[in-house]
Task: structure prediction
Amino acid sequence: MLLGDLTTPALVVDPGTLQHNLTAMAEALPGERLRPHVKAHKCTSLALRQREAGHRSFTCATIRECEGMAAAGLGEDLLLANEVLDARRLGALVEAGARITLAVDSEETIAAATSGGVREVLIDVNVGLPRCGCAPPDAGRLADLARARGLAVRGVMGYEGHVVGLEETAERIAGCTASMEILLAAHEQVGGSLVSAGGTGTYAINTWASEIQAGTYVLMDTAYERLGLPFRQAVFVVATVISSTDGYAVADCGLKALGMDHGNPSIAGSEVWFCSDEHVTFAPAAPLGSRVFVLPAHLDPTLALHERLHLVEGLADVLSAGAPAKDAEVLDTWPIDLRGW
Amino acid sequence: MLLGDLTTPALVVDPGTLQHNLTAMAEALPGERLRPHVKAHKCTSLALRQREAGHRSFTCATIRECEGMAAAGLGEDLLLANEVLDARRLGALVEAGARITLAVDSEETIAAATSGGVREVLIDVNVGLPRCGCAPPDAGRLADLARARGLAVRGVMGYEGHVVGLEETAERIAGCTASMEILLAAHEQVGGSLVSAGGTGTYAINTWASEIQAGTYVLMDTAYERLGLPFRQAVFVVATVISSTDGYAVADCGLKALGMDHGNPSIAGSEVWFCSDEHVTFAPAAPLGSRVFVLPAHLDPTLALHERLHLVEGLADVLSAGAPAKDAEVLDTWPIDLRGW
Result:
């Protein structure tokens, strides 16, 4: 199949850039120093490539992601970095042989872990992002409680999500330092070997965590692009120009193909005016029937909107040549198989 | 199954409110005066309810929506209100007995209709929204061209999408009037019986169009809620509170369960702070394990993120009582079966 044969909109990935990102991260954070977050791509075929790059432990955001990873043979060490109040589906995975570690931040989530059949937990600590995570002084008490209930406590988790996207490196370092001071203090009270934290924006800065939960690095988006990291844009939504005037053009890629919480997507050499359900309007005009490559502003919710992604040979060359190159070959198609809940 | 048994996040619909919306619209725009837009819900079970309310013609935004509607026996009169440059899948639907009318706005889209096997078209006219649609003076020429190529031209289409969301009724009336003057002038040049336009925001104002393409009215969202229309909020994303502190709570519904292009969702009686991939943080705090009902800011991309919706008996009563009422009964579950492309 050729690029020009794909029904648009379609997610396309450049295999060379993907490999560059995998290699760059594996060199910086080899093996279990990285616990790749699968929420970014929701694709077990891509997770398999991360394992081939040396990472055997993974981070998940939903029970469905844990189930899909275990079913794909990637359940060696899965962290559900999120709270649940019904852990029975996780207990079933443990029963079937997967290793599942669950984040807990309250008596209730500890009780859910126990009654659901989960055996290992991390104490999730609030390090500054007002989301999940216990108050730092409470971490030790919760760890004691978890152990008293028969759970193994593997350590702490604390996501500096309010810091990872800061564009100024100095601010990112300062924020990360402050968050990790909180997390290390909690770790002293909790014990265990794991200090799990971080993301693509702090993977090189966060030297305190024992493992980094980065996800976006592998495919990238325009939000993280601004940070000047060594990872490159590997994924695009390819769209077809379906209408064009003197001043602007419209392609068939809109709100149902793009995560929009970070704002409009980008098109190289063009100005994006706005998106509708199935359209992006941009200037200047472009030839009817030509293909445009739309860069998502936020990777994770974009991939959650697509059933599959396509690896396209030499896509980076197509893009740098500025040519549509409809005859570039589709090498492989991977289902985005961890969607839903 | 009970409301409390649903895996969260989940889309839930109040059947009484749905029926109210169906009835209110069918009274205002009976039969073929409304051509319901299925892009809003992407659900053939819901389209069937719209047909039971008297509407036998439907609007689609994608080829996939046309295919799914035809497969569900709802292909009596489908308008693809969008341009395509490859109409072969539509031609196959025509061949199989569906009635398909395709929007065209250029020589190239007319050629695509012809070569793809589509037999009927509307001339799509730009009435002020910089998206698809030909320049108004060009409509007659394109209609002549289409007829010369053997296509039946059923009339014109012109979507006043820049007007439908204006909160001031007077502005909405003025904008709609101006747009429809353009469309009616083009219709004089084009001929045919159809003048297809409008949306939920102009369904009562647009008295010029022969048919209105409203979609959101049937389930509603907070953006259209502000216009003071007679339609009520029928759909919510139900989420579980998974973390809670003195000052705020976190529920398991985020960017992958909500269309975010219109901004944050709402929770009655609460202030939404922000959404993450799988979380919404809001204040004040709420009991762990309780259910919250999240109102999407934009219906269409929200539904595109879910595999199914659930009809929950007496959901409106649950909401007005402010109680979680986990024992409300799930009456039916409808697949959102028109997703993808």
Notes: Chain A has two domains: 3-12+230-335, 30-213. The first helix of chain A runs from residue 15 to 28. Residues 3-12+230-335 of chain A form a domain with the Lyase, Ornithine Decarboxylase; Chain A, domain 1 fold (CATH 2.40.37.20).
